[in-house]
What does this fold into?
Amino acid sequence: MSQESSSFENLNATRVIATSIGVFFGLFSGVNHGIFEMLQGDKPTDGLVINAIGEAQRFWVEGTEPAFTLIPNFMLTGIVSIIVGLAIAIWSIWFLPTKHGRTIFLGLFILSFLVGGGIGQVFFFIPAWAFATCMNKPLTWWRKVLPRNTWPFLSKLWIVLLVLATITMLIGLEMAIFGFFPGISDSETLQNVNMTFVFGSAILYVLSFIAGFGHELRRMEIHQG
It folds into this structure.
C-alpha cells in the first residue's frame, strides 16, 4: 500500500467534512456578507432583515444576499460579520475536535447568523454540527444502518461527494452574487437554477457525511484488526 493511500485511509472523514463546511461558510458567507455590508457605509440598517449587497454594489436584480442582524449599522455589522466568519474558519481548522469544539462551532455560526453573516448558511451549519457531534464516537447506530460490505466503497466515495458539494455550492454562490450562468439570461429562471444548485449542494454534503461514516467504520475496523 502506498504512503498516499495509507494517509488517505487514516483521515478522519467526519472532521474533514465538518472542517470544510466551517471554512467554506465562515469565509464565503460570513466574510463575504461582511464585505458587502461594509461597502454600504456607515449608515443605519433600518431593520433586522437586510440586504447585504446594496443597490450600488448589486450585479443583478436578485443579487441581494439577504441577512439578519441585531447590529443597526451596515459598517459595524459588516466588521463583526467578517471577524466572526474568520473565527469560524480558524476554529474549524484547529479546534473542532476539542472537548467543547462542536458546541463552540455551533455557537459561532449562530452568532454569525445574528450579526449579518447570512441566512442561507443555517441549512448547512446545523446539519454539519449534528454530524460533527459523531466525531470520534463508536457510530453504533450507523454500524447497524450501513452494511459492512458498503464500507470500502463509501470510504472512497466520501471525498468525491465533498468535492462535488463544494463545487456545486461555489457555482450557486457565484450565481447568487453575479447572476451569471451560461445560456440563461432570464432572472426568474436564473434564480430557480441557483436554488437547485444550493439545495443540491446541501444534499451532497449530507451524503458525504454518510459516506464518511462508512469510511470511519472501515478505519476503526482496520485499526482494531
Observations:
- Strands lie at 49-51, 66-68.
- The longest helix spans residues 187-224.
- The mean pLDDT is 94.
